[in-house]
């Protein structure tokens, strides 16, 4: 999933690098507080472990062997901040010394695999494991953390790649970077990760966490301490999940909801289009206009999938915005 | 008295002869032989091969970095700056001509770095062009980017359908798609070539010095140094672990037994990394480490080589500006 140079515009790389910087800054500060001066040695060895664990192959059920990306494993063994820094250093070393992944694209790779994947993994692991998990629940939490973290990173990668032809085109329409728009990049990337890479990551993460839990459970991140306890999050997750699943019910309603008319519908209703609406209605069109995925047009059930995907994206965006606001407004300020 | 080892066997002694199959020389198992290709590597062998590949690449880079070429003699600070400027130029180039010029410049730089040109062109040029080409090929067609058709590939005719999907009347290679695809291919090949040239002609220590000159904090440089060093220590741990396991255990590699071994290896590796971190910290304390890091110069760089590289870079950037 390492994006090489050439597929993303330098502008995208710069924005993603800037987006990664606050998380890395917080991670360094947190670790400096926790590690009692030994941060350099711990981080270096954690990063070396992150590099080498990506090479450990494990037999998978189809008769071949596979290895994990290791973001979830790092988050469970090192905690979220340690995992973010270790993955970032690993990605930097892969790009700088081994030529794996682009140098300009390093910001994007760090954002996807170094920040997003460990954050998703740790959150999922904490929420699913709960306060005092049974072994089965702990393994499920680890496997789900592996599955969802790699898929979150894949989705972010696909969105970054898919935005290129929308944002960077020559005047004659020639795509300047990755040529595939969102409606192709997202399904292509997600199919491979939902069906193949995700289950592999889940299996390998679950196996290793299961082994560690049996022989030395104190090595694993303490599940659900305080605010991330499953008790607090589970009802919200269940309700949101239900609401997402129920969104296609909107398809049963005839006509357009009151006040949501398109300019042409409004013209049919009142005979003209107000000038302000005519000017402003065209300036923004959503990523999924009318909750439809263009590639699924004409496919049976395509409308339902479009509604589900739109709901999922909406919830993720809302959670992201909420998280950023919360961090900005409520972060503890230390006085020197 | 005769040497018993060369004494001819008498008629009463039993004659020891090798069975013919044991005397036959075994087929070589190097890469590329049909025998090697038939062997399906199990997970232990794949891990060992992967670990060896990392070591091999690092050794290859060290060997190239020791050669006496212009790129090796240039100062790491100038080299890092020049290569970053060229990578940025490749990324910002939005036409085929500047990208072709930059790729030509890469080949010239490879020759100046005393690299084997055939292998360089094969590994960073053809391989990247081929794989990127495979990825962007569908993107060159009217299916993804409608535009001026250059070549009609398939005519489906009006109202053609594939199951529930409506097909376009024809599938063609478009000018916009082809230009965009070729641009991505050339840009990828140029970027990979530049990164390869920088990493193989610069020892990792020199590379860190170059990055320090660009503002990389000393602590981060030290972190990279330690990580890089201990990657190889941990790789040795993995090699020892798996080689010992291969030598002692017959069968039992497939399925659950193999998965248990993989999990145990990861656990052992984690424990080893934690223990090493403690040892390194203690060693740093014992030697009075106070957080100050200095990167010593290992190789004397030449002013004329640095100047020549900077001039060549400026020439390439100027060329890109002219043909953009």
Automatic annotation (TrEMBL), chain A:
Gene3D superfamilies: 1.10.1760.20. Keywords: Cell membrane, Membrane, Transmembrane, Transmembrane helix, Transport. The chain crosses the membrane at residues 6-27, 39-56, 68-91, 103-125, 137-163, 184-212, 232-254, 304-329. InterPro entries: CbiM/NikMN (IPR002751). Pfam families: CbiM. GO terms for cellular component: plasma membrane. This is Cobalt/nickel transport system permease protein. It comes from Thermoflexus hugenholtzii JAD2. The lineage of its organism: Bacteria, Bacillati, Chloroflexota, Thermoflexia, Thermoflexales.
TrEMBL record, chain B:
The keyword Hydrolase does not apply. It comes from the Bacteria. One of its GO terms (biological process) is cobalt ion transport. The chain crosses the membrane at residues 99-117, 124-144, 178-201, 213-232, 303-323. Keywords: Cell membrane, Membrane, Transmembrane, Transmembrane helix. CDD domains: EcfT. One of its GO terms (cellular component) is ATP-binding cassette (ABC) transporter complex. It is found in: Cell membrane. Its main location: membrane. It holds the Pfam family CbiQ. InterPro entries: ABC/ECF_trnsptr_transmembrane (IPR003339), ECF_CbiQ (IPR012809), ECF_transporter_component (IPR051611). Residues 1-29 are annotated as: Disordered. It is a multi-pass membrane protein. PANTHER family: SLL0384 PROTEIN. This is Cobalt/nickel transport system permease protein.
């Amino acid at each position: 999933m390492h994006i090489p140079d050439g597929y993303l515009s330098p502008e995208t790389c710069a924005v993603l690098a800037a987006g990664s910087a606050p998380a890395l800054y917080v991670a360094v500060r947190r670790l400096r507080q926790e590690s009692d001066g030994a941060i350099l040695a711990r981080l270096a060895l954690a990063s070396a472990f992150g590099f080498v664990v990506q090479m450990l192959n494990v037999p998978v059920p189809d008769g071949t062997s596979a290895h994990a990306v290791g973001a979830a494993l790092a988050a469970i063994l090192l905690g979220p901040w340690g995992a973010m820094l270790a993955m970032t250093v690993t990605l930097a070393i892969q790009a700088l010394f081994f030529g794996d992944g682009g140098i300009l694209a390093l910001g994007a790779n760090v954002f996807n695999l170094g920040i997003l994947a460990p954050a998703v993994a740790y959150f999922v692991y904490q929420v699913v494991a709960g306060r005092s998990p049974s072994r089965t629940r702990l393994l499920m939490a680890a496997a789900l953390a592996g599955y969802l973290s790699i898929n979150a990173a894949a989705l972010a990668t696909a969105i970054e790649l898919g935005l290129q032809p929308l944002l960077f085109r020559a005047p004659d329409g020639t795509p300047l970077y990755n040529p595939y728009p969102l409606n192709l990049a997202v399904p292509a990337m997600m199919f491979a990760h939902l069906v193949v890479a995700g289950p592999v990551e889940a299996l390998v993460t679950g196996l290793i966490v299961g082994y560690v839990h049996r022989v030395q459970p104190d090595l694993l991140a303490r599940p659900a301490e305080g605010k991330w306890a499953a008790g607090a999050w589970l009802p919200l997750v269940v309700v949101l999940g239900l609401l997402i699943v129920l969104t296609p019910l909107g398809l049963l309603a005839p006509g357009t909801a009151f006040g949501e008319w398109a300019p042409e519908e409004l013209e049919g209703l009142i005979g003209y289009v107000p000038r302000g609406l005519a000017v402003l209605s065209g300036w923004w069109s959503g990523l999924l206009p009318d909750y439809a995925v263009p590639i699924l047009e004409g496919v049976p059930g395509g409308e339902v999938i479009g509604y589900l995907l739109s709901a999922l994206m909406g919830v993720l965006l809302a959670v992201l915005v909420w998280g950023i606001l919360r961090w900005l407004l409520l972060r503890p300020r230390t006085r020197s | 008295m005769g040497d018993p080892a060369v004494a001819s066997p008498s008629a009463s002694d039993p004659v020891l002869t090798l069975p013919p199959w044991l005397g036959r020389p075994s087929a070589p198992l190097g890469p590329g032989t049909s025998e090697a290709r038939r062997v399906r590597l199990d997970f232990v062998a794949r891990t060992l091969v992967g670990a060896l590949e990392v070591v091999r690449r690092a050794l290859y880079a060290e060997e190239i970095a020791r050669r006496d070429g212009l790129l090796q003699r240039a100062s790491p600070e100038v080299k890092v700056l020049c290569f970053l400027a060229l990578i940025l130029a490749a990324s910002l180039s939005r036409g085929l001509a500047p990208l072709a010029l930059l790729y030509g410049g890469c080949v010239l730089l490879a020759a100046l770095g005393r690299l084997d040109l055939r292998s360089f062109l094969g590994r960073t040029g053809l391989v990247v062009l081929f794989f990127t080409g495979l990825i962007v090929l569908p993107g060159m067609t009217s299916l993804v980017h409608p535009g001026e058709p250059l070549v009609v590939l398939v005519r489906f005719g009006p109202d053609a359908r594939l199951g529930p999907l409506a097909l376009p009347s024809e599938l063609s290679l478009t000018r916009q798609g082809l230009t965009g695809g070729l641009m991505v291919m050339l840009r990828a090949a140029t970027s990979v070539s530049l990164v390869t040239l920088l990493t193989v002609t610069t020892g990792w220590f020199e590379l860190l010095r170059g990055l320090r000159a660009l503002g990389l904090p000393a602590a981060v440089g030290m972190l990279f140094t330690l990580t890089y060093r201990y990657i190889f220590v941990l790789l040795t741990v993995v090699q020892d672990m798996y080689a010992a396991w291969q030598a002692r255990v017959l069968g039992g590699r497939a399925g659950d037994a193999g998965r248990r071994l993989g999990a145990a290896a990861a656990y052992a590796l984690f424990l080893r990394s934690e223990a090493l971190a403690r040892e390194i910290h203690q060693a740093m304390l014992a030697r009075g480490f106070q957080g100050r890091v200095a990167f010593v110069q290992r190789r004397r760089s030449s002013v004329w080589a640095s100047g020549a590289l900077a001039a060549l870079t400026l020439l390439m950037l100027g060329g890109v500006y002219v043909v953009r």
